[in-house]
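Box 4.2: Ligand-aware structure prediction
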Amino acid sequence: MSGAAVEREKLEVDVLLVGGGPASLSCALHLMNLVEKYNASGGKAVEKPSVLVIEKGFAIGSHILSGAVLDPRALDELVPGWKDEGGLPAGVPVSEEAFVFLAGGNTAFRVPGFLLPPAMKHRGCRIVILSRLVKWLAERAKEKGVEILEGVPGWEILFEGDRVKGVRCRDAGVGKDGKPKDNYLPGADIEAKVTIFGEGTRGSLTRQLVERLNLSADRNPQIYATGCKELWEVPKGRFPVGKVVHTLGFPLDLGTFGGGFIYGVAEDRAAVGLVVGLDYSDPMMDIHREFQRWKTHPFVRNILDGGQMIASGAKTIPEGGYFGMPRLYGDGFLIVGDSAGMVNSQRLKGIHLAMKSGMLAAEAVFECLKGGDFSERALGRYDDLFELSWARRELHAVRNWRQGYSGGILVGNIHFAAQMLTGGRGFVAKLKAKPDHLHFRRLGANGRPPELRPDGKLTFDKLTALYKSGTEHIEDQPPHCKVLDMEICASKCGEEFGRPCTRFCPASVYEWAEEKEAGGSTSDKPAGSCGRGSLKINFSNCLHCKTCDIKDPYENLRWTPPEGGGGPKYQDL
Ligand code: SF4
């Protein structure tokens, strides 16, 4: 319904921020603070800019899911004296930490602290609930005059030549047949002097932008991990507040990058999760299943047994680091946060980098406002500021880290040792990466996947976990998880990889329905077996994690935003 004949509301603002996460909100707040401070200092005043944030989730924070251990460095800069701020949900200080290797069977070994590089230690950090922090940032930004529209997804970028002039929002009220319903409302066109993309991981508009303007030419492709997470109420005294545990080993093999985490977020509450690099090669891999298996290891079971799972969700994480970042600026736009790949995967942290990138973008935009110049050259100041920042130094120091593990844990450890001795360089100046979807081995070279029968107490099937995410979508709309060519699913994807989407999606969105053979049943065939049938798309289950958009072996799945407000309603994840 995005044809030219439709009459659309048109809005004009100075600064449009797409996405209401930590990067965008830090940007909005910092920009308003800079203008306020500058105008209070005397001199020629800068007109207060109109700043608009659009957020696709039902509310600010409802699509936010993160571990999360926060390095407060950017928060210190954005809100100096935040410790004395009433109501700022800055979590609890990390009081104790451990790195544990889970071996098969029942054993677990604590990795001695002296074997861990300083970057893997969390002294001075805080365990936060990120959705609470972004809600606080949003309220603070609103007090300064920033406007925030919730439940408004961006649908496409408005270009004038190669200049970004704004964003068209998604239409509302379109039926599953693609026709307008009685409540049809065309999405508004929002034009801005600068559009800042802070959509989070694998943003759908950022993807359009990067592809159209070739912003990743000369860079590594971005690579990702998927994290499944649950929030647990644990029996009294079972896990201390402020304790951080990371695990390696079980249930992942030596060819698969990833690990688990357990964070004591509050009194008798633990956040637990498993993160798996999407450069895994086994098409039978199911990250949700592996997460559930991880909880059955006695080391984890002994913490959770007798407790209750109260919330669940999943999300991808950009892990490509410094060499995986696209060009951050261009005519009419900037890219910040996870959309820009601002994650230090060695430290398992990105919130501080997202916030810092938003602040640097604000500083560049502030200079544009002062000079009345929003040209590509003027916006390029963001890149200059980033190159001079501690964020760049931090990312550059681990520039080859994650790619080193694409060949498995043992090879990765050799790379890591070399990088430790050479200031992050390792064996080569720039270690290449290949896109996650190209890592699959053919079906048949893999054994049968491990069995798991969820017990509904410690382990859960995907639909039970989904229920705990609060996910809802309007049913009568075109599926937002799109299959570009169904024939590929029916033929070569089934034959070669056994349709891995039916496993890698943590929400059972993709289901293969085999055609029944005359007089027989197909129920005894393994999942993903070759044959005719059709791919059923349960799009209303979608958690917006974006795994399908990244990992499909033929790039045959495309995630687009659903009608406004649809998706998870994460609480305290
Ligand atoms: Fe994630 Fe795609 Fe499944 Fe949605 S459909 S939950 S984005 S893998």
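In the box above, the bound molecule is iron/sulfur cluster. Residues 481, 505-507, 509, 542-548, 559 surround iron/sulfur cluster (CB under 6 Å).
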